[in-house]
Amino acid sequence: MRDIKNLKVKLNEIPQGGLELHYSSESHELDTALFDLLGEAPIYKVDLLLNHSDSVTQLKGSISATLTQACSRCVENFESPLAKKFTTIYSKSEEGIKTLSEGLDDLQGSFDIEFISGNELDVGDVVHEQIAIDIPFQPLCSEDCKGLCPQCGANLNSEEPHVHSESQDKTDSPFAKLKALRGE
User: Fold this and answer.
1) Is the Cβ–Cβ distance between 89 and 58 less than 8 Å?
2) Could you give the 3-state DSSP secondary structure of residue 40?
3) Cα separations (Å) of 29 from 19, 35, 45, 150, 173?
4) Helix, strand, or coil (residue 92)
């Protein structure tokens, strides 16, 4: 059984048929590695298959997770699903990449090629990177999110009608006090 705290895999210890790794929210192995992306109680399932030869290491993975994000318009928290499959090829030298390029027809879909130094691969870092790549820069709780009122900051997605009276607009402005200082 693998040490739960240690997410590093020694490349030279990968068996001939490959090494399968499975992580989930129930077993908590990746909780620390994913805390900054998925929060305190992350929901995830990660399946990895590592194959190693003299020149390259191939990592195939699938990730399913639930992301808790803040909407970039209304700032409300919401959950969104993430499902991803990926392949990454690790090589210690350019020779390994050249050898790999001869057999590219055998690989299906897109994949990343990365150089690796040493004899260890940190699975936590790999999964963290793969999830981070797919997090949207400006997440939205829904495509039709109305955001916040520019005058009072109320969430415009609420069911209550949102109106401002003309006198309220002038006094509730965040710049009303500055205008008073200027004598306006």
Assistant:
1) yes
2) coil
3) 17, 11, 11, 43, 50
4) coil
pTM: 0.74
pLDDT digits (tens, 9 = 90+) for 79-135: 999 999 999 988 887 665 666 555 555 555 567 778 888 888 999 899 999 999 998
Spatial separation of the C-alpha atoms in residues 155 and 176, rounded to whole Å: 22
Instruction: State in Å, rounded, how far the first CA of the chain is from the last one.
Output: 74
Is residue 73 predicted with pLDDT exceeding 90? yes
> Residue 68 and residue 181: Cα distance in Å, rounded?
43
What is the Cα gyration radius of the chain?
A: 25
Backbone angles phi, psi at 57, to 5 degrees: -125, 130
pLDDT band at residue 5, thresholds of 50, 70 and 90?
A: very low
Residue 88: name the closest of 119, 53, 124, 48 by CA.
Answer: 48
Look at residue 68 and give its three-state secondary structure.
strand
